[in-house]
Amino acid sequence: MRKTVIILLTLTMLGCGQKSEKSENLQTQIDSLENKLSESYKPGFGEFMGNIQIHHAKLWFAGEHKNWKLADFEMNEIKENLEGIQKYCSDRTETKSIGMLNLAMDSLNNAILKKNKGMFQKNYISLTNSCNACHQATNHEYNVIIIPKTPPFSNQDFQIKN
Question: What pLDDT digit, counting tens, does each position of 77-131 carry?
């Protein structure tokens, strides 16, 4: 009986040691992956805003030329960038103000769906004003967005081809 107890205790201790070693190896792998993740590229708030500004400008010219498919595309690009801000820049206080744009975005989307140029222009101005209100609210009042005068790129045609 005594031999059996000693054998069982020995096996138990060996089993515990193996589990501990496996746990240590797993923890080492987890630590390594967390380190790699923390060192990986993460887009900054300004990068997202720069992209939004480009798509905001392109959106204007798409709407002015009644290119509603392109206008819809540009709206989706803006939405993707706003979602990116919420995902990758959640630690920034400015991110909490993104919701200020929702009503203007929805109204502009509706104008695009209706293919109504006058409504588009009115709601584009509303979106632009919402951007500036957000900049004011987040102490970026020096960054004033306007209706673009020229397309951001010379190599894009905004007119619809029949």
Answer: 999 999 999 999 999 999 999 999 999 999 999 999 999 999 999 999 999 999 9
Tokens of 120: 């588009």
- Residue 120 host element (H or E): helix 117-137
> Which DSSP letter does residue 161 get?
P
d(C-alpha 50, C-alpha 52), whole Å: 5
Amino acid occupying residue 16: C
**84 to each of 14, 15, 18, 33, 152, how far by Cα in Å?**
49, 47, 43, 22, 22
- CA atoms within a 13 Å half-sphere pointing along the CA-CB vector of 46: 2
The tokens describing 1, both together, are 């009986």
Q: In angstroms, rounded to a whole number, what is the distance separating the alpha carbons of residues 66 and 74? A: 13
- What's this model's pTM, rounded to 2 decimal places? 0.79
